[in-house]
Specification:
The complex is a heterodimer of chains A (176) and B (256). By secondary structure, chain A is mainly α. Chain A is built from seven helices and no strands. Chain B has one domain. In chain B, 79% of the residues lie in helices and 0% in strands. Chain B is globular. Classes of the chains: A mainly alpha (176), B mainly alpha (256). The interface between A and B is large, with 48 and 51 residues.
Chain lengths: 176, 256
């Protein structure tokens, strides 16, 4: 009977989740909305420096193993923060790009399509990287380099700028 | 006949008529062009439920014939339910090609994990109660419901994580199916453990619950189909030469 009760609880949770989802359809920004306040600044240069394998090799050669492990933990914590911010920004950008995709202007629609594609890929990478970074914080042994997140983030930043030339993104590119 | 028995019989009639009326609306709105499996499901549910009603009330049919038909109906509708989930997933992946590969893999793995979970639950809590044959049927239903609920839940999580937009129809279909499947899961989980040989108050109540949930899902689908599809609004009055904006963005591009 315990399993039956467990399944009833699961069913109730699924129902609650469905009703919650029905209440909050996808967060979409209308052209006039100011979403820049939801964005967090990501210093790409600092992020790239942080995940640079050469930098890691340099630190490894200079520091004692214990010091390196401590340093590496801090670096991975910072990288985790950067990846989380980039993933969060990608989600906000998706809310801008999705209405823009339906624009009557084919250039705007195409640009928005590319932005959606890259923002989704960035969130996919982030989904893979975040658990690995957590593991790397606790077991700082292997090399962890979320370069693809940085590359993809740079791409979407450029695409937002280009989209902003033809579609009202309301200062979003400045906030990135 | 007790009140609960009368209630679920009326709900049975209502959901049969509801499915057929909804099918007519879906055909009128040409929803079959986008969601053929869903429309087939609604049509099949209406026709098969009507068939079961006839088998239940016509004196020339025996109980055995009714239950044989019931098993067949459940098999067809369960298969179509999986088909609807597949159809919804297809729509999401078609609208977002970047998700295609990862989405397919994720669902394949989730299907395998859920299958093991459902088999595990079936092994840990096999069919109970004195009405063993029906309890086994409810156990199989429970297994299928768990899979459908799990896959739908994953679809909703995917939508939420990537902030994806679904057209109203797709969302309504998923919501209605999830509502019905999760209620069925709760009901089948209980019935697979306590199913008696002869019907009693519990079975009447659980039948009323599942028939009511089916009717509820029909109303959800009808509400979404009858409502205007809320496509995101695009402002058409965007100035073509917003020089200030261009200037700011070009400066930013140069600084990259």
């Amino acid at each position: 009977m315990m399993i039956a009760i467990l399944l009833v609880v699961i069913a109730i949770l699924v129902l609650c989740f469905l009703f919650g989802s029905a209440k909050g359809q996808a967060l979409l920004a209308k052209p006039g909305d100011d979403v820049s306040a939801q964005l967090r600044y990501v210093d790409l240069e600092a992020f790239r420096n942080l995940i640079d394998p050469d930098e890691e090799d340099y630190l490894r050669s200079r520091l004692s193993p214990a010091e390196f492990r401590l340093n590496q933990k801090e670096r991975m914590r910072a990288a985790l923060e950067y990846v989380s911010c980039a993933a969060r920004n990608a989600r906000v950008l998706l809310s801008i790009a999705q209405p823009a995709r339906l624009s009557p202007d084919p250039a705007v629609a195409a640009m928005a399509e590319k932005l959606i594609d890259n923002a989704i890929r960035l969130r996919l990478y982030a989904l893979q990287m975040i658990p690995r970074l957590y593991i790397a914080i606790w077991l700082p042994v292997g090399r962890m380099s979320p370069v693809r997140v940085a590359d993809r983030y740079e791409q979407i930043t450029r695409q937002v700028i280009l989209l902003g030339l033809q579609y009202p993104t309301r200062g979003v590119s400045r906030a990135l | 006949m007790t009140f609960t028995a009368t209630l679920w019989h009326w709900l049975w009639f209502a959901q049969t008529v509801g499915h057929l009326v909804l099918f007519a609306v879906l055909v009128r709105r040409k929803v079959y062009q986008e969601f053929p499996i869903f429309v087939s499901y609604v049509a099949s549910a209406g026709v098969l439920s009507g068939t079961l009603l006839i088998l239940n009330y016509a004196p020339q049919f025996t109980g055995e014939q009714y239950y044989s038909a019931y098993v067949g109906v459940i098999a067809v509708l369960t298969t179509l339910r999986f088909g609807i989930v597949y159809e919804l997933l297809g729509h999401v992946l078609r609208d977002y090609p970047a998700l295609s590969g990862a989405g397919k893999n994720l669902f394949a793995w989730a299907g395998i994990v859920l299958m093991f979970m459902a088999i595990g639950f079936a092994w840990l809590a096999p069919a109970g109660g004195s009405g063993h044959v029906m309890a086994v049927i409810y156990l199989l239903n429970r297994t299928a419901d768990l899979l459908v609920c799990g896959l739908l839940l994953l679809l909703f999580i995917l939508r939420s994580y990537f902030n994806l937009t679904w057209r109203s129809y797709a969302f309504g279909i998923a919501f209605g199916l999830g509502f019905s499947a999760s209620t069925d899961l709760a009901s089948d989980a209980i019935r697979s453990q306590i199913e008696p040989i002869t019907r009693n108050l519990n079975t009447h109540l659980l039948d009323a619950l599942t028939q009511g949930a089916t009717l509820g899902s029909i109303l959800i689908w009808a509400a979404y189909v009858l409502a205007r599809e809320d496509k995101p609004q695009i402002r058409r009055d965007i100035p073509k030469h917003d020089l200030e904006n261009w200037n700011q963005e070009l400066q930013r591009l140069l600084h990259q």
